[in-house]
Amino acid sequence: MEQPYGKVRPQRRILVVDDEPVNRELLVEILGGKYDVLEAENGRQALGLIRRNRATLSLVMLDIYMPEMDGFTVLETMRTDDELSYIPVVVLTSDKEAELQSLKLGAADFLTKPYDAPEIIRARVDRLVELSEGRSIIRAAERDALTGLYSGSFFFKYAEQMERFRPDRDMDAVAINIDRFHLINELYGRDFGDDALCCLARGIEDFLADTEGIGCRQDGDAFLLYCLHRESYEDVLERLQGALEPLSQTARLRLRIGVYANLNRRLDIARQFDRAKTACNMLRDDYTRSVLVYDNTLYQDEVYSETLLRSIYKALEKQQLKVVYQPQYDVSGDEPTLCAAEALVRWQHPELGMIKPGEFVPLFEKNGLILLVDRYVRREAARQLRAWRDAYGVSFPLAVNLSRFDLYDEGLIAELEALLEEFSLAPEDLLFELRESAYAVDAEQLDAVMGELRERGFRVCMDNFGSGGFSIGALFTVPVDEVKLDMKFVRCIGSDEKRRRFISLIMDGATYLGVTVVAESVETEKERAMLAELGCTILQGLWFAEPEAQENFEAILQGGAPEETPPEGEAPDQAE
């Protein structure tokens, strides 16, 4: 009767090595019904068979005293070869003195000649084969298939054992990444990426050979080390970068290293490595350093960030986010005229007080939560504009921010059109400023969304113009209605002739294309006058007014032109 699917198993393979044919024949007779038995008559022949069959060999039964090459040499060779050392060896001998030396060389068991107990031999061989297969499964699971380093789960188990049994040793948790590794794979192919991972793994092994510790590849390009404490890891960085040198002709590979020194024994291993990885992740896009040690300052920053992340949903529900408005003025006439405003967001946290956007917007942009904030601000801005229009008859446009996540939001256009319908507004009532993070979107996506917004009647502003995200040439290729000069140009306009000339070029190009230019962060009369002289007459900044809450902005709506002297206050906080 045919066995059910999944029950059939191939015969395990055993190699019997003995220079006496009669001994080989006896073992073949005892084991041949259950095992596929190979034979060799000396050590040299045996090593050839072992190497050729290493993937399928379950056991070697090895005589010690043979011509050409003895069993001790075979054991020594197998012990020092990583591809052979895991195959168990049963020593065949009648020499008691050879047993100790064989054990030292890695023998798993002994069989004493002559072979007069077949049942015992079969039982011992069965046990060793089963143990060997179990060890093989464990070995496959504990090692990363590509690099040969420990896998993540086994690494943490071993690290916990080191922590438990060697509490007197000061150990460090270390996280290592290859910066922008996903792009390396995209640009140079997965084979090159695998080569980079293997080169780094060899560098890690060389480093660990000189110190006490273990290493693993957790996943992707994430490597972890648990090693003896050291005061600096700059030399380790240099050493590991050197391991990648053979690939430097193809690509520049930059490493990031985050370290958590085992200062707090109460932290478990997993949390130690969480902190090391936090430090490593904070080095993304920071090209001033490549090693960061997690300390109390980083801990406080991490706790603060986590508090903000946990609080955002309640903040939206309880309307703790406050939208403030900063006016823009046209100074081309005798008196400044209110011509637009920008909606900015602040967070009035019940425990932490007023939180400025620079503290929470970048955090939310990392994980997509900025979408929730942007939608909230857009709705509040549309509602407020409708209220002001009904109360004061104003007709200026209101600018709101878009992030890179908004540009990938398939529901963006439907959301905007729903706002227009709900609050009886026209598309030209809202102007969308591209937050700096939006420049990270691929050019085709950026152009597609901006083009669709303009086709539907919305106006689009390129914020931070000249900061590096866009150059003058972008005015001729990117579909925009307005650009906002980066504040660095305004700050240096009185002392940097090159920047003044650059602003002049921007004004010429924008005028030719019919694109409006706005200067933000205007704080002094000198800045206002020089910008007006260069032809930039739409201005925003503390010279006119700070970002104001609803009730204060309504005073501006009633009063018209701003005062001629700037308000007292701290440095501007323009960006979300």
Can you characterise this structure?
The chain has 576 residues and is an alpha/beta fold. The protein folds into three domains: 13-142, Response regulator (Rossmann fold), CATH 3.40.50.2300; 152-294, Alpha-Beta Plaits, CATH 3.30.70.270; 303-559, TIM Barrel (Alpha-Beta Barrel). The protein is 45% helix and 19% strand. It has 21 helices and 19 strands. It has helices at 21-31, 43-52, 71-79, 97-104, 118-142, 152-165, 181-188, 190-209, 234-243, 269-281, 296-317, 357-367, 370-392, 404-407, 412-422, 443-455, 474-477, 487-491, 497-513, 525-533, 550-559; strands spanning 13-17, 36-40, 57-63, 89-93, 109-112, 171-178, 213-219, 222-228, 255-261, 291-293, 321-330, 337-349, 353-355, 398-402, 430-434, 459-465, 482-485, 516-519, 538-539. The strands form three sheets. Strands 11-12-14-15-16-17-18-19 form an eight-stranded mixed beta barrel, surrounded by four helices. α7 (181-188) crosses α8 (190-209). The relative contact order is 0.06.
Question: What is the element layout, followed by pairings?
Answer:
Layout: E1 13-17, H1 21-31, E2 36-40, H2 43-52, E3 57-63, H3 71-79, E4 89-93, H4 97-104, E5 109-112, H5 118-142, H6 152-165, E6 171-178, H7 181-188, H8 190-209, E7 213-219, E8 222-228, H9 234-243, E9 255-261, H10 269-281, E10 291-293, H11 296-317, E11 321-330, E12 337-349, E13 353-355, H12 357-367, H13 370-392, E14 398-402, H14 404-407, H15 412-422, E15 430-434, H16 443-455, E16 459-465, H17 474-477, E17 482-485, H18 487-491, H19 497-513, E18 516-519, H20 525-533, E19 538-539, H21 550-559
Parallel strand pairs: 1-2, 1-3, 3-4, 4-5, 9-10, 12-14, 14-15, 15-16, 16-17, 17-18, 18-19
Antiparallel strand pairs: 6-8, 6-9, 7-8, 11-12, 11-19, 12-13
Helix pairs in contact: 2-3, 7-8, 8-9
